[in-house]
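Hi Y.,

Following your request, here is the sequence exactly as I used it, all 875 residues.
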Amino acid sequence: MAISKTYNPKEVEEKWYANWQQKGFFRSKPNPKKEPYTVVIPPPNVTGVLHMGHMLNNTIQDILVRRARMQGKEACWVPGTDHASIATEARVVAMLKEKGINKADISREEFLTHAWEWKEKYGGIILEQLKKLGASCDWDRTRFTMEESLTEAVLQVFVDLYRKGNIYRGIRMVNWDPAGKTALSDEEVIHKQVNSKLYHINYQIAGEEGNYLTVATTRPETILGDTAICINPNDARYQHLKGKQALVPLINRPIPIIFDEYVDMEFGTGCLKVTPAHDLNDYELGQRHNLPSIDILNDDGTLNSKAQLYVGEDRFIVRKKIAKELEANGQLVKTEDITNNVGFSERTDAVIEPKLSMQWFLRMEKLRDPALSSVMEDQIKLHPPKFKNMYRSWMDNIRDWCISRQLWWGQRIPAYYLPDGSFVVAHNLEEALALAKEQTGNTDLTTADLRQDEDVLDTWFSSWLWPISVFDGFKDPDNADIQYYYPTNDLVTAPEILFFWVARMIMAGLEYRKEVPFKNVYLTGIVRDKLGRKMSKSLGNSPDPLNLIEQYGADGVRTGMLFSSPAGNDLLFDEKLCEQGRNFSNKIWNAYRLIKGWEVNEDLENPNELAIKWFDSKFNAAFEQIEDHFSKFRMSDALMAVYKLVWDDFCSYYLEMIKPAYQSPIDKKTLDATIAFLESILKLLHPFMPFITEEIWQDIKERSDKDYLIIAKWPKADVVDTILLERMEKAMDIVGGIRNVRNSKNIPQTKALSLAIKTQEHSILKPFEALIQKLANITGITYVEENQEGSINFVIGGSEFFIPMEGTVDLEAEKDRLIKELEYTKGFLASVDKKLSNERFVNGAPAQVLEKEWQKKADAEAKIKALEQSIAAFD
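Below is the corresponding structure, written out as C-alpha cells. Let me know if you'd prefer a different format.
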C-alpha cells in the first residue's frame, strides 16, 4: 500500500483513538501476574474547559502511563471531575439569572435540580477534550466527586473525624468571599500587589475638644466597626492617654484607648485602630482585652445597620464617600499612595474580607506530623526536590482548615440541630434521630424536630480522599481494586496545589489506609507566554488548545509543550514550539516514506554492516540516557534525547549512510535492520507521539489484533560499543569539516571532491573511508606525509585534512581571503593581549571573565597557526 505524501494528523488521530478504545487498551483490571501502575488524574473542575496547564499536565501523565503499559505493567489511569462548589454554583446562579430566576426565590431542592441538569449538560466537556489530546485514561472508571458513593465517603470521613475530636464548630475569623458569599480556606486566597491609598484620620480624645490621635488605615470604611485605639505601653508620647477614650469619627461613638505591646511604636503614628470583626490581628487583640466585635458588613460586602452610616451601600463605594466626608469634617489629615498586598478569592477574584463567622474546622496538628515526615524521609519523593523546603515550611505553619462553605452545591454537612440549639453529627437523618433521643433523653423527638446544617463542605474535603475514594476504598476497604491499585504510583500536578491538595491527600491516605497515597509527585511549572506572563483569559494571551491541535496535530502540540518544560520550572510557551513539533512529525513521516520507497534486491550483499553496528550502539546509548531521564522525571530531557536520536542520528546520518544510489535497490539485510531500528524508535516515540507512531507501526506490515504499538514491548538496554561510537563521531566530524569547506567556498554538494589525510591513525580511519566518501561526496582518499599545496585544510584531533582547490575555486582570490582573515585575527589577538597585560583589569575582573579572555587568546593563536599553514600551502 502506497503511503500518502503528506501526514494528515486529524484523520490519523480520530482513527486510532477510536480503535484503541474499541480494543479496550485503556481499560484496566487487577491482574496479580502484572505489576500495577496507577495514576489518578488531578480532577479538573466540572465547569472547566481545556487550557494550556491541563495540556501540559495531562500530556505528562499520558507519557508515563503509555510507557508503563508498554513495560508490561497493568496501567490504570483514573479520570474524573471535581464538583467545584464555588465555581459551579456561580455558573448555575448566572444561568438562572438569565432565565429570570433569583436563587433567593427558590428552594434548595429546586436549585439543586437545576445544578444537576447543568452538570449533566456541560460537565463532561473537559474530559471529551482530553481525548483529543490522546489521553489514554480508563474512561470506564470515570468518577465525579459528588456521585453517590464518593459523597458517602465524604460524610463517613466527616463523622469519623468529628467523633475523634478532630472536627469542631466555632466562631472564628475567616476569609470571606463577598461575591461567592462563602468562607474560604487560606489556600484559596491569592495575594496580589495593588495600588492603594493610606488614609491618615484624626480621632478626637473624648471630652477634649481640639485634642486628637492620628491613625492610618487603608480601609476607612471599617472605622464604623472600631471598638478601641491601641498604643504600645512603652510609648512615652501617649502615656497621658491611659484610661481615656476616643470618639469614632462621624458617629462619635466612644471607644477605649488600650495599651498592648503588639503595636509597633516605629510604624506610622504608633496608634492602631482596632476593628475585631474585620481583621485577624485586631480580633486577637480584642480577645485579649475583652473588646466587643461589631460586624458592619453584610455577606455581599455592603454595609449593614450596625455601621449606622451608608447602610446597604457597597464597601468600595463607601470607602470613597467616607474619605470625602472625613475631609469635609476636617478629620482627614492626608492621603498617601502606596502599594500593598491584598487577598483575592481564587474562584471569584473578589477582594477578601476578614470576617467573624460560625464555621466548621478540622484540626490539622495530629494529621500533619506523619504527612510531613513521609515527604521529609522520601517515602514520597517530590520532583524536583527543591519543593521539600516549601512543603516543610507550610506544614510547620499549618492552621486549622475551615471546611464549611455557605453554598448549596456540594456535600451537605451531616450535622443536625435540635430545637434547643444543640446538635448531633450522624451519617444520615435516621441515625441523627437516634443520637438526638439518646443525647436529650426525649424519646418523643421525630425527624421533623431536626434541622440539617445549611452549609456544604469545602470541595477539597472530597478531593483529598480521591486516591482512595475512586477505588471505593471507604465503601468497601478490602475490595480487589483498592487492594491492587493503592497506593498509586505517580501524581502529576501543579506546585500551587501542593499544600491544599497534595499534602491533604497524604494526610487522608495515612489516616485511612495507613499508607502514603503515591510514591512520586511530579510538579509541573506554570505555562507562561513568551514574555513570561502567566496565561489568562483576562490578558488574552492563552491560545485555545483545541485550535492548536487542529493546526499542528496532537503529537505536534504534545511535543511542543514539552520541548521547554523542565519539572518545577515555568514553561515559556511559544506557538513556534508546536510548529517545531509538527515539523518533527513531518520529519518522521518523510523518513518512513523514504524507507518505504526502496526496492529490495535479495541477491545483493550487505555493504552497510558498519553503519548498522554503529546505529545499534547509538540507539542503545540513547536508550540508557532516556531511561535515566525517566527515572529522574526529566520528561523534557527524555524527549530531547529521543528527538536528537531520530532527527540527527537516524535521519541525518544513518539513512544517508545506507541510502542506495538513485533508482538503485537496497539489500534485504540492510532494509530488515533499518525496519527493526524504525520499530524500536517508534516504541521510544510512542509515549510522546502516540498517533503518528501507531499509524507508521500499522503501515509497516500486516499485523494481528494483538500487535499494536500501544501494547508493544518497551525496548531493553543492550551492549553499547563505545569505541565504535567514538570513532564514528570522528568520521562524522570529518564529514562536517568537508561540508564546512563546501559552505565557505560555495561548492555544491553535487560536485565531487578528493581528500588527502595527514595522520597517525590510518588503521582507525580506514574502515570509515567508504562512509566519508558517500556522505561528503568524496571521489577518493589518499594518505600523505606532507602538507598539500593549493589545498584548503582543517584539523580534527591530531589529524590534518586537505581538499585540493585547483579547478574548484580561484586560488589567488582564496589566498587573498586567507591573508585578510589572518590580519584580522592577529589584530584581534593584539587587543586580547593588551587587555590581559593590563594589571587593573586582571586584578579586578571576575574569574569567569578572565577565563573567557584566556580562551579567546588560545583560540586566536590556534586559528593564526592554521591560517598560516593554509597560506603556506599556496606557495
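The chain has 28 helices and 31 strands.

Thanks again,
Q.
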